[in-house]
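Schema walk-through. Below, the input block comes first and the output block second. Nothing else is stored per chain. Lengths vary across the set, and this one has 220 residues.
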Amino acid sequence: METAKNRSNPVYGDRMQTSPRRRPTHSAVRSAAALFLAVGALSGCSAVPAPAPTDSAAPVPAATSAPTETPPIFASNEEALAAAKAAYSNYLAAGDTAGEIGSDSWIGFLALSTGTEHDATVQSKELMKERGWSFIGVTRFDSMTVQSSRPLADSTWEIRTYLCLDLRDTDTVNEAGDSVVKENGSLRSPMVVVFVTANANSNQLLISESPIWSGSDFCS
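--- output ---
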């Protein structure tokens, strides 16, 4: 199990991210857990919903063909997975300990995300502040697998993963220190987490999106 504070094998040969039905992104689940668990689906704070599966089965890895021009950034599928695990562990730890909006720790945390993940994180934090809620505890994840790894049109690299986000050692409390999380809320969620490199010449991974998987729950 990967720890931190606050779907596979698709590589190129052996070389190597409402409407009432929308699902919230991981940042809304993680950094504003109670908004998901206590008041439902964060209709105004979601980024993109999980891609609708063709059926309700567990995620199935999708094979990809070898690139013809862009060489793989990571030497193997295992290397890409290790890099994604490290990046996500760092992201969760930074989120667990991030301070108020504008603080150095908050700015540092935001620097680890991009795109819809970044936007959802900011919206979640603002809503938490508005409601006087605080996130406490240690966020964990496990069972990460690489679903695909590929170059994008702008020559950056994307790694799409599946994992189980574990909020059992976390809580969200109000200003009086009382929990605002529903007791019957799910504290372990199947996620699609997408990473992209910071630029075409970098292997630094940023979290670009993290919707909840909309198929069967492979974390139960």
